[in-house]
UniProtKB/TrEMBL annotation:
Taxonomic classification: Eukaryota, Metazoa, Porifera, Hexactinellida, Hexasterophora
UniProt-recorded name of the protein: Transposase
InterPro entries tied to this protein: RNaseH_sf, Transposase-MT_Hybrid
GO molecular function: nucleic acid binding
Amino acid sequence: MASCPNFSELEQRTYIKFRTILEIPPKSIHEDLATICGENTLSYSTVRRWVSQFREGRTSVQDAPRPGAPKLATNNDKLSEVKEYVKSFPHSSVEEVANYVGISTGSAHTILKADLELRKVQVRWVPHCLTFPQTATRLQMAKENLEIYEGSDPRRLLELVTGDETWIQFKPPIRKQDGRVWLKKGEVPPAVGVSDFRAPKVLYCIFFDGLGTVAQIPVPKGQTLTGQFYADVVLPEVEKHYLKHRPKTGTRGLKILHDNARPHKSLAVRQKIKDMGMHEVPHPPYSPDIAPCDFWLFRKLKDNLSGREFEDRLSLGRAIYRYLEVIPKDEYRKTFENWIKRLNSVVAYKGFYFEHS
């Protein structure tokens, strides 16, 4: 009889099954298969094992599922289940997806990565969950400012003065990236406590323009930053700076850019700004990403003070003054140019928060 090398293993098992039903002994079955399949014949021990199982009542010629073997799960139903689950629960783990759908973690991983082409990334933290009217306001004000300042004479940016308030601790916390120390093998790293909101600190009002620092005013201990204090103490310091550097015009014609904190929008502050001959630059609520103090100066200042300890308000104030004075003037100018770029990002993202470095 001619041999048939393409006689598959499954077909040989089927042959064994029917020959077993006819009560043919394993040795004879193996000899028949060897005549038919030649070198592709199942081994005699394999034939004997299958004969034994068929005699005990087995009917299937397929391999039995092995413990722990991944289930096949790439059919459309499973794909749809996984897709709907991760849409409803985007923070879920691969194990949670697998348990819900009833498949192995390997199959779940394959569906997520290969079939659905998904990847799990860190969420992007934002200052505020913006409503539609808030995004519309951000978009409108960004466009208004761009119409005035983008592409205009670079000297127009020198008309801008910006300021805000920030708390600075006597012992500013160490930044995470600065928390690494040199230790010998087996030594225990020192513990560093998280920042305590009750730690001694000073509230500073800091202003700058495209040429450098304009004013840094520490709020006295026990004093609340009210609109009246802002109008009577803070803004006069800004005015004093410009009377010294622009004796003929002082603050007349300058534009002040600050956020929508309640003291900034009080009637007393608005009247003082008007008396100083200044104009307010429109700035939308919940927008620290386009406030120069927030996206640049305060972060830079606190990075410099990180890990240092100051005995009193005087030593802290000196450190702040010295650092603000050594920042290259060019960086102050570039910050307002960066402000223009960020306004363009607001427009590009239709008022929503944008990715930035």
